[in-house]
Amino acid sequence: MSVTRVTATRTLCNIRRPLLACALRSYVSASRGKASQHMPPGSELAGKSNLTPRIHERLQHLRTRYADLNARMSGDVSDLGREELAKVSKDFSDTGQIVIPYNRLLELYGELTELQQMIDESKDQSLRTLALEERQVALEDVAATERQIINGLLPKDQAESGGAILEIRAGTGGDEASLFSGELLRMYERHSQLRGWKFNTISSLEEGDRVKEATIEVSGRGVFGALMFESGVHRVQRVPATETQGRIHTSTVTVAVLPQATDVHIEVRESDLRIDVFRASGKGGQHVNTTDSAVRITHLPTGLAVENQQERSQLRNKEKAMQILRARLYDMERQKLDKERRDSRNRLIGTGDRSEKCRTYNFAQSRVTDHRINLSLYDLEGIMSGVSLQHIIDRLRIQHDLDELADMS
Amino acid sequence: MPRCPGNNTLIPLLRKLSESLGEQQAKNELRWLIEHTRKEIGDGINIQQHMTAQSTEHKGARLWREQAARLPDEIERDSERLSSVQHAWLRQAISDRTERHKPLQYIIGEQQFGKTNIIVRPPVLIPRWETEEWVLRLAELINSHTDNVRDTQQGLRAPRPLNILEACTGSGCVALGLGCELADNSAQILGVDISDDALQLAMDNLVYNQMLLSNHVHFRKVDLQQPVHTLPAQLRAGDGEPGGWDMIVSNPPYVTPSEYRDLDADVREWEDIRALVPLPPGTTDPRNVPSEDLDPSGMSFVVQLAKLAKELGLASKDRDEDASLRLDSLPRLVVEIGSAEQAQAACQAMHDHGLNSTEVWKDMAGTDRVVLGYFKQ
């Protein structure tokens, strides 16, 4: 099964066709062979589909359930308690998210059958052309509707809709690595600008264009969902500005994207924290007018320590350090869960493993390759400017969703 | 843009600053100064535009295409490029900082305090983070009290706002900080000070932060060390409001005379001694008080405030005609102090003047920082 997926993905990357339809159709062709009693009539006309027989079976089941719930809700509900009623109506609306587009999909299958019949049997040339056109429209509809169903089927991750903390750290390669991490930083900044996100430096260690490490808070809607796949080792291959003999160097930069933890996600007890204010040995207060505003928070149970001296205000530094600490703790929890899930499945894209090589930027060939989905784009400039980064993110998202879907079936 | 190439690098400035502050702190201060320069010090061209243009044409991408190696300080100069006016300002600022020990806050001219931005200028005391910390904590305490009172009073008339007197207001940061952190119209705050400089600055800060305030704040020049019966009638009656004063808060001078001699130059030479060391009542020449007249404990103003709290009726139950406010769960006197010994002395002074329950809050660095006196029935 997983072998099929990899090959399918490779084909996917080499052809230029509308993203979504292409990805959805080239996926899991093997399953079509065993299309059996569970595949609804007409579905074979819709081209390649991600909805395997098992998923169709599940969708049929959901459909029955939806009808039951509908009957329940429209009948006498006086016997239901308040809580039970709330549960039933929530269930009803959740199921509807999937079943309503599924019903639309079944209709589309019906339309396709009719159109096919028309194409096969009609002798009128103009009518045939019309039917062919209509079929094209219907096929596009099928792809979009399938996407909706898949979205509905996938488990919802609350963190994806929120903001994120982006950490960039220069790895091997000395100065060149820190130059490149500065460029990556600007790529993400520009990308955030384009998508209307707030890009806020929490702390950074930089000298001129060189950035050794930086922590950035990116806030806006769906930030984590989009940036989560950026975690990993980014590799650059080029002749560095500092190289006099024209040799190509390879350097690395590590990127980590942590979901922004709100109070709902994680609880940190005040008693678990040790807060250090630097040079606190003196009397403080009116006695000194300190500008040393560094604050360090240590989370005693885990030993995690976060230090911040970006702002002139101790209190602001403490708040931000706290924010980063929360994100790290939350991330630790998630990584644990993610690892458990990944260990049991063979997945292409992890969001947890930070040591995984994820992308190469080759300046000589003006090429960016994402190794997880084997995607090469010859648009380095566009990607570094933050614009074409979107393409990579979209592809990763689709692959991620397909992986999730495959886990389910 | 006119530039003097040889003179425009930051490295010598950083070196100079490092000598008096240490490298890490020098880097921080230089960064803040540069940020300030870029934001506030113009030079005829649109700095903002210049900056955006630079960042969007990917500096890095330009670097790798120019194959010739560049010296690190050339790169540094390029990225930190400032106009000659900005650079001159920066040089002046750093010489003020290192040779004249001018506090960074006076150079930048502004300091955040809670949500407010406080203008600072010599010789008025620069707001300290310890003060900011307890003021925010106090605001939280008062707000939860207000919530409770409002909850239990549902349907009844809204409780009147609390009358808060802030003694030794200085830049006005405590009064303005409370005025903007406290729930809408839950308090009215009067800040008083003896210094004309302080009062002028507090007024400026009131205007500067007007948009942020959710409560009425005003300032007045008053010498709180004079006997209570000579205080302005308005002050004695509790700001002209029924119910009199509900709370006194203060960051009074508490540095002892012997500590004062050892203070860092940036405090001793720049900030008003009247904000730091409690001086005898009626002092006209603060710098020339005979040392035998000075209070060696640094507590005389705190004691004076405890006395004032009693005389203004904060430590008695008969004046609390509005029982629905449940004032006994709120501190009546809140005073910043500088050490554990002073905390103990302040508690004693409060007990001596009828505030029968006291509490000490520590700051983030673990030092006893503020004493709260309650009157419990």
Output the strand order for the largest sheet of chain B. Answer: 5-4-3-6-7-9-8
Beta-strand share of residues of chain A:
15-25%
- CATH fold naming of the largest domain in chain A: Alpha-Beta Plaits
- Just give the CATH class of the largest domain in chain A: Alpha Beta
- Main sheet of chain A: which strands, in order across? 2-3-1-5-4-9-10-11
Q: What is the percent of helical residues of chain A?
A: 40-55%
Task: Report mean pLDDT of chain B, rounded to a whole number.
Answer: 83
Share of helical residues of chain B: 40-55%
SSE order of chain A: HHHHHHEHEEHEEEEEHEEEHH
Total helical elements of chain B: 16
Return residue spans of chain A where pLDDT drops below 50 for at least 5 consecutive residues.
Answer: 1-36
Determine the structural class of chain A based on helices, strands and strand pairing: alpha+beta
SSE string of chain B = HHHHHHHEEHEHEHEHEHHHHEHEE
The overall strand count of chain B is 9
Q: Give the distance, in angstroms, between the N- and C-terminal Cα atoms of chain A.
A: 11 Å
GO molecular function (chain B): nucleic acid binding; protein methyltransferase activity
Keywords (chain B): Methyltransferase, S-adenosyl-L-methionine, Transferase
Protein name (chain B): S-adenosyl-L-methionine-dependent methyltransferase
InterPro entries (chain A): PCRF, Pep_chain_release_fac_I, Pep_chain_release_fac_I_sf, Prokaryotic/Mito_RF
What's this model, at a glance?
Chain A has 409 residues and is α+β, with helices and mostly antiparallel strands. Chain A is 48% helix and 18% strand. In chain A, the strands form 2 sheets. An 8-stranded mixed sheet of chain A has the order 2-3-1-5-4-9-10-11.
Describe this structure in words.
- Chain B: It comes from Coemansia aciculifera.
- Chain B: This is S-adenosyl-L-methionine-dependent methyltransferase.
- Chain B: One of its GO terms (biological process) is methylation.
- The complex is a heterodimer of chains A (409) and B (377).
- Helices cover 48% and strands 18% of the residues of chain A.
- Chain A is of the alpha+beta class.
- Chain A has 2 domains: 2-153, no CATH class; 158-266 and 333-408, Alpha-Beta Plaits, CATH 3.30.70.1660.
- In chain A, strands 2-3-1-5-4-9-10-11 form an 8-stranded mixed sheet. In chain A, strands 6-7-8 form a 3-stranded antiparallel sheet, covered by helices on one side.
- In chain A, helix 2 runs parallel beside helix 11 (389-408).
- Chain A starts with a helix and ends with a helix.
- Chain B has helices at residues 11-21, 23-40, 47-56, 59-65, 72-79, 84-99, 104-108, 129-152, 173-181, 196-208, 233-236, 257-261, 265-268, 273-276, 300-311, 340-352, and strands at 110-113, 116-119, 162-167, 187-193, 216-221, 247-250, 333-336, 357-362, 368-374.
- Chain B has a 7-stranded mixed sheet with strand order 5-4-3-6-7-9-8, with helices on both faces. In chain B, strands 1-2 form a two-stranded antiparallel ribbon.
- In chain B, strand 1 and strand 2 form a beta hairpin.
- Chain B is globular.
- The N and C termini of chain B lie far apart (71 Å).
- Classes of the chains: A alpha+beta (409), B alpha/beta (377).
- Chains A and B meet through helix 7 and helix 9 of A and helix 2, helix 4, helix 5 and helix 8 of B.
